Each structure stands twice: as C-alpha cells, then as structure tokens.
From TrEMBL:
Listed Pfam families: DUF5753, HTH_31
Domain HTH cro/C1-type, first and last residues per copy: 20-75
Superkingdom classification of source: Bacteria
One MF annotation (Gene Ontology) recorded for this entry: DNA binding
Organism in which the protein naturally occurs: Sphaerimonospora thailandensis
TM regions (residue ranges): none
CDD domains: HTH_XRE (cd00093)
Protein name: Transcriptional regulator
Family annotation (InterPro entries): Cro/C1-type_HTH (IPR001387), DUF5753 (IPR043917), Lambda_DNA-bd_dom_sf (IPR010982)
Entry-linked SMART domains: HTH_XRE
Length: 275
C-alpha cells in the first residue's frame, strides 16, 4: 500500500496518514513546513504519515482548513473513526492495524502478564473487566478485538513469534485457578507450533522490569518497529535509535531465559499446581 494511493481496506489511521502526505506533497509543503502549521515536529508529521502516531483532534481540523476540506470535515471524520475503534487505546491502533499484521517476526517480552496475543478468552476478559470505568459493552468489544489478533498465527504465512515471559507470570493468580490452568495449557498448545517459541525468564532478571514491549520485523525491507507499554500511554515507534535500544534490552532479557524445553516443563509443572 503506497501513501499516495491507500487501499480501500486501509485502516482510518493509515488513510489519514496517506491522504495527509498526498495533499501535503500536492501543495509542495515539506514535512517541516506542515509541522509548523500543525504545532508539532517534523518527526511527528512523519510518524502520522506512516500510521505510527495518532493525530490530535485540532490537527485534523487544521488539515481540513488548510486543504479546503472543512465543509466535508474529511480529516475530522477520519479522526473520529480512528478514536472510535474499540480495539484498544488510540496509541495502539497503528500497531494493530498497520504493523503487527505485516510483521514477519514478532519478539515479545512481558514481566507481569501473559502477552495479549496469547491470552485465552477468560484470562483476557478478567483483565479487561478490571480496567477503571469500563462498561460491559466496551469489555466485550475489546475482548473480541484482542482475540481477533490471534488470527495472524493461523495464516498460511504466520510470523515467527518469539515470546519471553517472566517466571512470576505463571504463578500470578488472574481470574482464579481454573482460568490459570486453561491459560497455561493454551501457552503449551501454541508453543507446539513450529513458528512459536516460548521461553520463561529467570525472576532475577531486572533489565525487563521497566515494562512490556514488542518488536516487529517488517517485510519488504521496511524498518523494524516497536511498541512499549506504560501505566499512562504507550508508544509505537520506528525510530532507529529507539528500536535499537529496545532490541538490545530484549537480547539482554533473553540471556536470562531458560532453554525452550526447560521453559515448557516449567509451564507444565505450574499448570498442574493450578488444578
């Protein structure tokens, strides 16, 4: 999908970025020049055009005025579609829509929970239902979006998935013993796939306590991208320096991981304790 001609199936975020770039270039504006109009940096304009950053509502209004689209509210409409997506927080939508589906390799680390991509319905529902001020409808919508993510593993050309999980995750009670028993069983089931590797990390590793993250290697020579969680708002980025920093952290954490066969035996042992 080119920025100049987004496909009909492009996400609202991808279409917003592609149209912003197309109209900017047609008006012979540099990214820096547009950034000054939008009140942001050239890097932020670049990330919006690549669907790696969610625009602000006032930026959508400025773009409509700048390109004579105020009567149609074109960019405002796209912004509303972006922010109405029930799949998760705004910052995460670029990852879900544009990066994860195109990844050839996904590397994941989580010090606290089973990664969302490998969560069972019961495990995920328990977590989502305990988000502050969330309604049952939103829980159901986000749950379906989270479970839908797993479909990338069922493709004819699934990505290579390399998962690192802190040992404490296996013993952290989420939803009750039955939920944990099912969740660890699902981990073992997924780990049987040739494209999935699950390794448990020794709890003595402190390098990864800063938080969960994923690294995506993209096809077609595109740069890798990362997403990192935080208590407030996470981050999606393809900035080389940041990708390199997260990659180095991943490798440091991996050096603390038990071999795959040892890790799977650990999961089996803890799973038996949850009966």
């Amino acid at each position: 999908m080119s920025a100049e001609s987004p496909s009909d199936g492009a996400s609202p975020q991808a279409r917003f970025g592609a149209e912003m770039r197309r109209l900017r270039e047609a008006a012979r504006l540099s990214q820096s020049a547009l950034a000054s109009r939008l009140g942001c940096t050239q890097t932020q304009v670049s990330r919006i055009e690549q669907a790696l950053r969610t625009p602000q509502p006032e930026q959508a209004e400025i773009l409509d005025r700048l390109f004579g689209l105020s009567d149609k509210e074109y960019f405002v409409g796209l912004y509303k579609r972006i922010t109405s997506n029930p799949g998760g927080p705004r910052w995460f939508m670029g990852w879900l829509d544009e990066i994860e589906p195109r990844a050839t390799v996904l590397r994941s680390w989580d010090p606290l929970l089973v990664p969302g991509l490998l969560q069972t319905e019961a495990y995920a529902r328990y977590l989502l239902a305990r988000e502050p001020r969330v309604t049952p409808q939103v829980v159901d919508e986000r749950l379906q979006a989270r479970l839908q993510r797993r479909s990338i593993l069922d493709r004819s050309d699934p990505p290579l998935l390399l998962v690192l999980i802190d040992e404490g995750v296996l013993r952290r009670l989420i939803g009750g013993p039955d939920v944990m028993h099912e969740q660890l069983g699902y981990l073992l089931e997924v780990a049987e796939r040739s494209n999935v590797t699950v390794q448990i990390v020794d709890p003595g590793c402190v390098t990864g306590l800063i938080g969960a993250f994923m690294i995506a290697e993209l096809s077609g020579g595109e740069p890798s991208a990362i997403h990192a969680d935080s208590a407030a708002e996470g981050l999606v980025s393809a900035t080389p320096e940041l990708v390199s920093s997260i990659w180095n952290r991943y490798e440091s954490i991996r050096s603390w991981a038990y071999p795959e066969h040892v890790s799977l035996n650990m999961i089996k042992e803890v799973m038996a304790q949850w009966i």
